[in-house]
Amino acid sequence: MALYLVSNVSGGRVTLQDRSGKLHLADCLGPAPDHGAELHGIRPNLGFAVLSAASTGRMHPVAFVGINCSATDLADRHPAQSVSPLPATAR
Known about the structure:
The chain is mainly β. It has one helix spanning 71-77; strands at residues 2-10, 13-18, 23-28, 38-41, 47-53, 59-69.
């Protein structure tokens, strides 16, 4: 099971940061999780996934559209989204 922190929420898209600091981009297929939320789910893979919020157990269906992205990749895919990884102490 993978652990993600929501590092950005914008326009139905979320940027997820995994334990190793890698960034992933996903489209929300339901209500978006809150910024800073801890989510659990499958390892990142393009396509559909259901992630669960650690604090509430709420399910968040998403579609991964970018895996192991750089901040530049994310800006190219969603220019309105400013990405700044969460500090190491938040992981």
